[in-house]
Structure formats: structure tokens, C-alpha cells
Amino acid sequence: MAAADPIPRIVVLAGDGIGPEIVGAARELLGAIGEFEFIERPIGGAAIDELGTPLSDEVLEDCRRADAVLLGAVGGPKWDSTDPDAPRPEQGLLGLRKGLGLYANLRPVKPLPALIDSSPLRRERISGTDLLVVRELTGGIYFGRKEREGDSAVDECVYSRAEIARIARVGFEAAESRDGRLTSVDKANVLETSRLWREVISGMAAEWPEVELDHMLVDNTAMQLVSDPGRFDVIVTENMFGDILSDEAAMLTGSLGMLPSASLGDDGPGVFEPVHGSAPDIAGTGAANPLATFLSVAMMLRHGLDRGGDATRIESAVEAALGDGLRTADLHTGAEEENEVGTAKMTEAVIAAL
Predict the structure, then answer these.
(1) Do domains 1-105+260-354 and 120-253 have the same CATH topology?
(2) Cα(332)–Cα(292) distance, rounded to whole angstroms?
(3) Domain boundaries, the chain
(4) Which pLDDT tens digits describe the chain residue by residue (354 residues)?
């Protein structure tokens, strides 16, 4: 008799603000899908309060031994400080990415039919949008040397040829599996790191003859995302540009509450999280939108646990709940056919739609 498949081991990092609420909803959803082992650990502000550091060595080691990591959100005004030596919740997230070698962040942007009128852009402008932002995650200005002396401050941006090549490969392979178009975004008219970025990616294009590569400056990309988002298939870019552009692209879906993400490396577990923040203003009210977390769970099942069928079930269930007119407050337009619900009711509806 063949041995039963091992139960997937998922480290749950609920984090701060609405993190525990949306991750709790995600655990309910996973319980309706199958059997999983959950290991809950603190990160961000919660870890600062409990352990004195936003990411402890023990928590990082637990993540390394897992099959996947599900993250809620980190940060909040409680931990804001102008003291450069004070621990910050976001350091936990950066440390997690670095510690697990997660250099590629995937952020799909595809407005769902039921929400197309929730976007601030006109229906005809975003109709047909289906793009993927591939963001380099462990280099650039976020990880460069930081200094502050008197009235001056320095944030250094560094990229190596190898770092650019490995994220470019992810972008080319993603484009090859999709519509065959890759847009590399940089600021090569000003920045030396961007000139190296463009040089490396241009030199790799011959390996993917079926992929159409073009280069675009980041400021032009920001304009094109709101004026003609349908022109993009896969966008590959460096860390800070990707952070900004993917949040901008999220508004094509009508809300940051709808955008999932996956952070992947060459081996080991990936981290799967909604793109939105911890929303401390609504924490504890039961109003948080769990759908980006549910879609992140789908990405976890597909990219982290090789359970693509279950991922599709979740995505279809989310569409069905929205198709029935259910909306959380961030998605509610006030239309008569819509029914505004909180976290619990939306979770219940998605699970029912499975």
C-alpha cells in the first residue's frame, strides 16, 4: 500500500492590525480544502512586543522547515519611531525575505468581472487587463547601506549582474508561459544601476526568442498603467519600483484588498501574503476584506504546495461570492444589488461556494 501524502506544514505569521483576522479566515478556508498542520509564530510589531525583535532566529528557523509560510500584515502607528535604532515591524518582513532567499515577488493583477466597476478607472480602460508584476525582492535601495549624520542621510542602491539575471529569468519564464510579452522597467536615463539592469536583461533576450522584450522608464510605466493597462503582460523591475508600481496596479482591481502575492526563491518555502497593509484603523471591527488573503492562499497552493486544482477552486469560489453581490466595505459602491458584509460573512460565503 502506498504511503499517504504527508500533511503540508504551514507556518502562520499573522502579524499586526487586521493580520490575525484575515489569517484566521484563511485558516477556516484551508480547513474546508483539506488537512494542514499550522504552526503560529509572531512577526513584526507583535514579535517586537513579545520577543523584542521583529523576527527572531527561532521563528526564521521554523519558517525554513515549513512547506510554506502564510503571512498576514505587519506594522502600525504603535511602533512608528524616528529613532534609527528602534526596531521596526517592517524589518521582520525584510529579514524573512532575506533569510529564506526569496528574491522574486509575483503580483498578479486581473480585475474580476464583478468588481470592474469598483475601480476608479473607467470600465473600458481596464477591461481585459491581465498582468503580472515580477519584483526583485532582496536587493536595491531597501537593502543597501543606510547612514544618517547630522542633516544628511544616505540610502545606497546596489545591484549585481547575478541578482539582475536571476529575477530577469523569472520574468522571461513567466512571459513565455503567458502572452509572450515582457516589459523591463528601469530609470536608465538617470541611474547607473538601471543602466546595468537594462544591459543584463537585453543580453538575455536571445534565450527566449518567443518573448517580445521592451524597456520602459518607470515614470512612463506609472502613466501607462492607468492610461492603457491592457498593453502589459509581464512587468519585471527592481525592488523599490516594483513596490510602488504593484500598489498602483492594485487600484485597477478596485482595492488593495483584492491583490495577492507570492515571494519565491530557488528552493525552500515561499511566503504568501496579501499586498495590503495592516489597516490598524479597522482592526478588531470585523470589517477587513479577507479576499486578497484567500487569493494568496490559492497562490500558496499552486506555487508552494503543487495543488493547482485546489487553487482554482478557491479562485472560483471568490468570484462566485462576488458574483452574488457580496462586498466588504472597501469594495462597496452603494449599488442596490450589493450586500455589504464583514470578514466573517465573506468567509462563510466563499467556503459555501467551494
Answers:
(1) yes
(2) 16
(3) 1-105+260-354, 120-253
(4) 445 578 999 999 999 999 999 999 999 999 999 999 999 999 999 999 999 999 999 999 999 999 999 999 999 999 988 787 889 999 999 899 989 999 999 999 988 888 887 777 788 888 889 999 999 999 999 989 999 999 999 999 999 999 999 999 999 999 999 999 999 999 999 999 999 999 999 999 999 999 999 999 999 999 999 999 999 999 999 999 999 998 888 778 766 678 899 999 998 899 999 988 999 999 999 999 999 999 999 999 999 999 999 999 999 999 999 999 999 988 877 676 779 999 999 999 999 999
Give CA separation, 37 vs 27, 51, 97, 267, in Å.
10, 24, 22, 20
| Active-site annotation, residues | 142, 187, 219, 243, 247
CATH class name, domain 120-253: alpha beta
Give this prediction's pTM.
0.88
SS3 107: strand
Q: What CATH number has the domain spanning 1-105+260-354?
A: 3.40.718.10
Q: How far apart are alpha carbons 105 and 274 in whole angstroms?
A: 12
